[in-house]
Amino acid sequence: MNKMKKYISSVMIHGILILFVFISILPIFWMWLAAIKPFDPSVNDPFAFPTAFTLEYIKEAWTTGRMGIYMKNSIMVAAPRVAVVLLLASLAGYAFGKLKWKGRDLVFKFLLLGMMIPINAMIIPLYYNVQRLGMINSLQAMILPYFGLSMPFACFMMRSFFRELPDELVESATIDGAGKLKTWLYVMVPLTKPALTTLLIFEFMWSWNDYLLPMLMVYDDKFRTLPLGLMYFQGEYTMNTSLIAAGVTICTIPILIVYSIFQRSFVEGITAGAVKG
Amino acid sequence: MGGKNKVKNWVECFAFALPAIFFYCLFLVVPILSTVKISFHEWNGAAPYMKWVGLDNYRRVLHDPIFYKALGNNIIWILFTIFIPVLLGLIFAIILTQRFVKGKFLYRLTYFMPNVVSLVAVGIVWGWIYNPEFGVMGKMFRALGLNSLAEIDYLGDEKLVIWFLLIAGSWTCYGFNMVVFLAGLQGIDSTYLEVARLEGANPVQKFFYVIVPLLKGTIVMLVSNSLIGSFKVFDLIYVMTKGGPYHSSEVIATYMYNSAFGMNEYGYGSSLAVILAVIIAVCAGVFMKLTDKDNT
């Protein structure tokens, strides 16, 4: 009897778990399906199950829909942004987490204040500053501001990893005659690789999905990144749901591949950022 | 000599942090101060000089019904995201730590997926789900025989639109809450649960008297995260409704954006931005105090 009860509750729990698997993936998966089925304007039901298969819409979205250009821009924005943020945060994380200097914790607290401020609160002057620098409507306009905006979280995360490295490492490197820069480069950086990977993935995801700043900084079609391009794309082809679905597919597949490969690092990053904080 | 060395050492150390601090000041600290400055002015964004109006913009905010509507929506967003996604996350995290559950990896992988997708894509997907013509939502209600619910224009109804946005918003973030709770649960000493079991506690008692108190730190963290996140919410609403219809789904962040970049009222938009920043800073400060007390 008890065994029976246990069995039923186990089946029910698994049923709920699987239901939520569908709730989580179906909306996106539906889009992928809609992208590969022939568009029929008389039915216009993107949720209908496909009866035939075509890659025509993916191709059209990529070329005439310019999703190819948008993707290139997204990569061109993400690569330098991620590289510089990682470099700056790694240097600063070393200074805040391992080196000892007067005022260190005070400066760090000042940096942390930035984590509380929403980006919406500074976009007006940010827009005019970038305009004054003559960089409105360029890829740099979507990269440079993040060297500052990403710093609080990035430094916070790097610092918590550097702090956990044993002090003896620095000491023995110093005794061996290595300066601070050499110690950082040859001893510290290799050891913080897990943290750097996590930060890389997060920064990449934020860059890839960024919408507000590109919307503000760029009005020329040739500089649009994927989310922004997708937004205009949707406005342009409102009627053709297969084509829009193709746009969504092109935008979501790369990030979901990255997520599936680095799933572990995502989870570790969230736990590091959340629980240690 | 010793003093000189000390200075040299300090400069060397500080040099590592300097580039980060420089960009932080340039792109974050200076703009936020400029926002405060602009908020005391009337400015259309194009005029070469701004007109000083003192506290007028703030006075206007306090008498602006749309501001209160937006603030109310932010508060609805907070309450809903604390109850639904946080609670769902906790329940799923507890289920996934049970020994008999199979395929844990699959659930963890898929539940978090909505979190990594661009909110523009999410907005389009959910816009279609709510579409009055071919949306799945209407079809689902019709299949259940709830025709009155199927007739609603989900994103066009002034009274209901915020709730339907909230469902989409919760969909994106419950997996995040679950992952954090899972980490919190892993830190719990299993002997507590073992003792509770030996004492004959039922699952509900175990939940309220053992798990919840032990997870207090994580819960406070996620509740404060929802609180701050709810004030920051922008992308999803802007993509799906732009704050409409008739400002009915406006939150402070979208209203601020629409005032500044839509209506060219940069002074007024800045005062809204300052108010938003102050609210978030106060909430964050209070919660940091609370978590500090728990940890020590």
What is the CATH superfamily classification of the largest domain in chain A? Answer: MetI-like
Biggest sheet details of chain B? 2 strands, antiparallel
Count the DSSP helices of chain A.
14
| CATH architecture grouping of chain B | Orthogonal Bundle
Topology-level CATH name of chain B: MetI-like fold
Please give the order of strands in the largest beta sheet of chain B: 1-2
> What is the total tally of β strands of chain A?
0
The structural class of chain A is mainly alpha
User: Which quaternary structure do these chains form?
Assistant: heterodimer
Order of helices and strands of chain B: HEEHHHHHHHHHHHHH
| Gyration radius of chain A, rounded | 24 Å
Shape of chain B: flat
Helix content of chain A: over 70%
What structural class should be given to the helix and strand makeup of chain B? mainly alpha
Mean pLDDT of chain B: 87
CATH class of the largest domain in chain A: Mainly Alpha
Supply the key terms.
A: 277 residues, mainly alpha, 2 domains, 14 helices, globular, B: MetI-like fold, two-stranded antiparallel ribbon, 2 strands
What can you see in these coordinates?
By secondary structure, chain A is mostly helical. Chain A has two domains: 89 residues, no CATH class; 152 residues, MetI-like (MetI-like fold, Orthogonal Bundle). Helices cover 74% and strands 0% of the residues of chain A. In chain A, helix 10 crosses helix 14 and helix 12 runs antiparallel to helix 13. Chain A is globular, with a radius of gyration of 24 Å. With 296 residues, chain B is mainly α. A two-stranded antiparallel ribbon of chain B has the order 1-2. The longest helix of chain B has 37 residues. Classes of the chains: A mainly alpha (277), B mainly alpha (296). At the A-B interface, helix 1, helix 3, helix 4, helix 5 and helix 6 of A face helix 1, helix 4, helix 5, helix 8 and helix 11 of B.
